[in-house]
Amino acid sequence: MCLAIPYQVIDLQENDSCRIRVGSGVQNCFIGLIDSVKPGDWLVVHAGFAVEKISPEDARENLELINRYIFAKDPADKDAKAESSE
Amino acid sequence: MKNFSPDIYKDPTLVARLKQRIAELAQEFKEPVKIMHICGTHEHEMGRYGLRDLLPDNVEVLAGPGCPVCVCDTEYIDQAIQLALSPEVILTSFGDMLAVPGSIPLKGERKGDVRMSLLDAKARGGDVRAVYSVFDAAKLAQANPKKQVVFFSAGFETTVVAVAALLKRGAPDNFFIIEANYFTPPATHLLPELEGFDVNGFLLPGHASAITGIRIYEHLPDYGIACASAGFDPVDVLAGIASVLRQLVENKPGLENTYGRVIQYDGNRKALAELDEVFARSSKRWRGIADIPESGFQLKGKYRRYSTEERFAEVLADPPERSVNEHPKGCRCAEITLGLARPDDCPVFDKLCTPDNPYGPCMVSHEGTCRAWYIYGMGKERIHVEV
Ligand code: SF4
Question: How far is the CA of B94 from the centre of ligand 1 (A)?
């Protein structure tokens, strides 16, 4: 099953893998399908492999989209202020 | 936002604002609005966070065919059982698949039309082991060179792509997979054509769409269905619902990506390339639903040697006696996976069928609709028919 929680990379390991922090423990994760993973990155993990990496930039844009397109009363209102959690 | 914090997508203030926005949008509709998700984890998280309680009465979210355990063809489950009972085999699977009944009758042991699961095979001496990932199954093969290790690869895009990545990099010679590999998008071609299907919007899967992208769903707005890809935190699910409602209010059904921090419009190209190298698309039987063209993956070329259909052709040519009905008598999973019934419409929900003793497949997995409804108390207010 997909898990909502992203996991943070502790360090890189051999064979396209890394260690991630899971609660108070540590697990191995395959990263062969993701480019340039480094310690501190956040990964979306499914059954032992990383599906995607979440960048702080993408997370901010995601929140902005929710604010701009969902809360703006006029869909064409490009000036609607995004309320990101900066 | 310099650092990413996952908790912002659980923010109670934003949840409250989304609830209010959804209520405002819902006032624009004279008829009830039906939104279907096609990912079992959406059902699970909606139950866990009680998100249906935040929706107005005229907005209903239905569960579609998004649980791989529920739609897995009985033939694969029966094959897994048959192989598990071969002395040379260690059968590995995600824990969720172990209790799923297939179609081999189990007479006289429990009440009802009971069928064998992998747990029953284990009780009969089969070497059945739950694994966390396909990589763990391959390690088990390495550690047991005298055994044949079979991975029951039941799952959607996210499971299949991990299998492809593993096989491409080389797996042990004694490692094989049961190709119960399903592909979600073709099912969404079938759904709008079904009689009685009157859904106004789709919440597209979260992580399966991270692999495929959402371009592959571009056909859905042509049916007048509004779509939003959505993640799994409360803000994500509610933002997806608000997006669908907004598109409908504006009468502009389209595809909106409300989970842009994870999903790209064209998906994960590297993952798709590896998938294409190892697997070809094929028709698959979705349990209780239909044979859906192009909705599955079969190993191709040099990778076919990892298929149990090749390696165990002789054993599988002599299958055990099987029931002709895909679901046990009385089980309504076929309608539940199409959003045509609710778990509490089933006469055996919370009676013969509970998570500890699942009678039908939708009660087994965390992604199963009946299990989510049972665990999180949904539908318990209805009166059940005794059987
Ligand atoms: S409660 Fe759900 S899983 Fe159980 S028999 Fe009924 S429809 Fe099938």
Answer: 21
Across the strands, what pairs with A53?
Answer: A43
Mutate to test the pocket of ligand 1, among B289, B327, B353 (most ligand atoms within 8 A of CB): B353
Torsion sign over Cα A70, A76, A82, A83: negative
10-residue averages of pLDDT along chain A (86 residues): 77 92 89 93 90 89 85 56 37
Measuring CA to CA, which residue among B348, B320, B318, B324 is closest to residue B336? Answer: B348
Q: What helix, strand, coil percent values describe chain B, rounded to 5?
A: 40, 15, 40
* CB atoms B94 and A75 under 8 Å: no
Q: Which domains does chain B have, with CATH numbers?
A: 21-61+186-205+213-257 (3.40.50.11750)
* Ligand 1 center to B155 CA (angstroms): 20
Pick from A2, A1, A29: nearest CA to A16: A29
CB of B38 within 8 A of CB of B65? yes
Q: How close B233 gets to chain A, by Cα (Å)?
A: 6
Chains A and B form CB pairs within 8 A to the count of: 136
| Cα B175 off chain centre by | 25
What's the rounded Cα separation, in Å, for the pair B52 and B362?
A: 19
ipTM at complex level: 0.83
Round to whole Å and give the CA distance between B136 and B25.
47
- pLDDT of B380 > 70? The answer is no
What is the rounded distance in angstroms from the CA atom of residue A84 to the CA atom of residue A56? 12
What is the per-residue pLDDT across B303-353, written as a single tens digit (0 to 9) for each?
999 999 999 999 999 999 999 899 999 999 999 999 899 999 999 999 889
The ranges assigned to domains in chain A are 5-84
> In this complex, do A59 and B4 lie within 8 Å of one another by their Cβ atoms?
yes
B149-164 mean pLDDT: 94
Percent of chain B with pLDDT over 90: 84
CB contact (8 A) between residue B8 and residue A52: no
Q: Which CATH architecture has domain A5-84?
A: Roll (2.30)
What pLDDT digit, counting tens, does each position of B81-94 carry? Answer: 999 999 999 999 99
* Residues contacting A76, CB < 8 A, separation 6+: none
Report how far residue B306's alpha carbon sits from residue B22's, in angstroms, rounded to the nearest whole number: 49
Q: Please, what sign has the CA dihedral across residues B242, B370, B95, B279? A: negative
